[in-house]
Design a protein that fits this description.
This protein has 143 residues and is α+β, with helices and mostly antiparallel strands. Helix content is 38%, strand content 26%. The two termini are 23 Å apart.
């Protein structure tokens, strides 16, 4: 499980060093994907396949499912963790998330998020946790 938020930097070649405590959970193949809210998501391959199953089980008849599947599959790239604990984020994905020098590396359970620091700050400061919790309880998502 990935938890916590860290500040890191990405170099001009797109290499990003990941927090040491995340590396132990990053075994095998990895995939970086365009995520929600203009961040990137980094998945171990098995978690990515499980995530994609939400959009492949419905087949290709439902147009909204096709759109979601295309978004997440076309906006993805395999990456490798090198000996220094870094991944190389492809240029198109860096541009999508506006990653230049600073990067917020955020653990989100089964995956890692990569954020532009200003976008992360705006996003996290916009959350009213008490109101959100009340809405989720009312909708039946929380007990």
């Amino acid at each position: 499980m990935f938890t916590g938020t860290y500040q890191h930097t990405i170099d001009v070649k797109g290499r990003l060093s990941l927090p040491a405590n995340f590396r132990k959970n990053l075994v095998g193949d990895l995939v970086v994907v365009k995520g929600f809210d203009n961040c990137l998501q980094l998945f171990p391959q098995a978690a990515y396949e499980e995530f994609l199953s939400n959009f492949t089980a419905g087949g290709s008849i439902e147009p909204r499912i096709r759109k979601m599947r295309r978004y997440f599959m076309s906006g993805s790239a395999p990456v490798e963790l090198d000996g220094a604990g870094r991944i190389r984020v492809p240029q198109l994905l860096r541009e999508f998330a506006e990653l230049e020098k600073g990067v917020i590396v955020n653990g989100d359970g089964d995956h890692i998020e990569l954020w532009n620091p200003e976008a992360w700050e705006a996003y996290i400061n916009d959350i009213d946790v008490e109101d959100l919790a009340s809405e989720l309880v009312a909708a039946g998502f929380l007990a």
